[in-house]
């Protein structure tokens, strides 16, 4: 259940052990908007916090369905293996599943397990890690490599991706493999690069498509309001991804 870019994600912290509850309480104090789901015998760990609390007496596996249906990001203070087994029967697709994050009992590591990239769990893992003084463990190639996330680029600005799925897959591979990429921006906000690191050297920026020597590049990322004729798609066989920013005045 991936949240839209312009809405506040519904967040839940889940704890089933004494140490997990203590770590969840630390995080809850920093995130008063987050709900808490905890085993009833450890509910006292959350006394005095403003967060909404659901304490349960049954099995944790019975809570997973409602959690998946009700939240955009779920932070488990439970072992990674246990979380994988718990969520497995509920998985649907990266476009529908919530972000799932695991924090170890000692509060040392924060691991995005599900929907890290599209669903935002990678971003939330970094935020949770910063609040807990922990280390985020990211495995998504574009995030690890601090490069362009082809499938969600500009999402925070309302950009829409226009390309066959195979193009997105192929171009993403070219980007993370460090191959030369042409980035042409003819429309939209210039504030699309949100990482704290510089744009990778393999990304070459242009302001007009006509300036690009296409034979030098493995792929083309094109931000534009212009029509893209079928001939262009065919000529750039699986090498083109187009981004459509909102037209000014329609946001």
Could you give a quick summary of the protein structure above?
By secondary structure, the protein is of the alpha/beta class. It is built from 7 helices and 12 strands.
3D structure, described in words:
The chain has 7 helices and 12 strands. The chain is α/β, with parallel strands linked by helices. Strands 3-2-1-4-5-6-7 form a 7-stranded mixed β-sheet, sandwiched between helices. Strands 8-12-11-9-10 form a 5-stranded mixed β-sheet, with helices on one face. Strand 11 (219-223), helix 7 and strand 12 form a beta-alpha-beta unit. The chain is elongated, with a radius of gyration of 21 Å. The protein starts with 10 loop residues before the first strand and ends in a 7-residue tail after the last strand.
What is the count of β-strands?
12
Helix content: 25-40%
Percentage beta strand: 15-25%
Structural class: alpha/beta
Task: Name a few traits of the molecule.
251 residues; 5-stranded mixed sheet
Topology:
Elements: E1 11-15, H1 18-30, E2 35-39, E3 53-56, H2 61-70, E4 73-77, H3 80-87, E5 99-103, E6 109-114, H4 121-132, E7 135-136, H5 141-144, E8 160-162, H6 165-176, E9 181-185, E10 203-206, E11 219-223, H7 230-235, E12 240-244
Parallel strand pairs: 1-2, 1-4, 2-3, 4-5, 6-7, 9-10, 9-11, 11-12
Antiparallel strand pairs: 5-6, 8-12
